[in-house]
Amino acid sequence: MPPKPPIRVALVNDYEVVVAGLMHMFTNYSERVEVVKLIANREVRERVDIALYDSFGQNQTETEAVERVLRNPLVKRTVIYTWNFEPSRINQAAHDGVSGYLSKTLPASELVRALEQVHTGELVVSPAPQGTSPTGGNWPGREEGLSYREGEAIALITQGLSNAEIASMLYLSPNSVKSYIRSAYRKIGVTRRSQAVGWGMRHGFAADFVRLDPDDTSA
User: Fold this and answer.
1) What are the residue ranges in the chain where pLDDT is below 70?
2) What architecture (CATH level 2) is domain 142-202?
């Protein structure tokens, strides 16, 4: 019997460094997963078995973003790869028609196994993450010492979101968002929001559309 062909997986995110980090996770599993490399901010343009949607730094509701992937006729199944495991969010994703909801704490071997289960038609929801940072992959600001949450906060600030909008997007309390922003500011050496936006623009945090926030106050 000939070996099964690898699952064709598209990695979907607006940040090239995130896509590259995910590709690196699959390096040792090329016989099981064939990664279709995407350029940031592009739609999937060739037929794939699974689109793995990474939610890092998205400045719209997850439903809106995922619906675009679900409507793509070239994508057979869609999986959300995320840090946010609010029950309402998981239920909404299942209602929207996703085939998996996977944690960023999964090591590469378990992530590949989960994608194989999705490929066979299973709905796979991994356990909620217990740690404080993803197991693998990459994100903007990591090389500057920013944690995943700090990097995501700076990404959304760079795109012009307010603290309240960031809290809503990330399902965090306003106080938690302020804490992440303050610690990020200390690490990157800024004290004001406009300085953080400028830093983000220079360090790969700019997405396709940037809306500058006129409120130039500290976190």
Assistant:
1) 1-2, 39-41, 59-63, 131-133, 207-219
2) Orthogonal Bundle (1.10)
Q: Give CATH for domain 7-125.
A: 3.40.50.2300
Name residue 35's beta-bridge partners.
Answer: 9
Of 29, 26, 19, nearest in space to 54 by CA = 19
Question: pTM of this prediction?
Answer: 0.82
Amino acid identity for residue 130 in this structure: Q
Q: Taking a C-beta distance cutoff of 8 angstroms, is the pair 98, 71 a contact? A: no
For residue 204, CA distances in Å to 47, 76, 110, 118 come to: 29, 31, 29, 32
Question: Residues 20-26: contacts with CB within 8 Å, 24+ apart?
Answer: 20/138, 21/136, 21/137, 21/138, 21/139, 22/52, 22/54, 22/81, 22/137, 24/136, 24/137, 24/138, 25/108, 25/111, 25/136, 25/137, 26/108, 26/112
d(CA 135, CA 90): 21
The yes-or-no answer to whether 7-125 and 142-202 have a common fold is no
For residue 78, what are the β-bridge partners? 51
Provide DSSP, 60-113: S-HHHHHHHHHT-TTEEEEEEEES---HHHHHHHHHHT-SEEEETTS-HHHHHH
**Domain range annotation of the chain:** 7-125, 142-202
Could you read off the pLDDT of 174-184 as tens digits, one per residue? 999 999 999 99
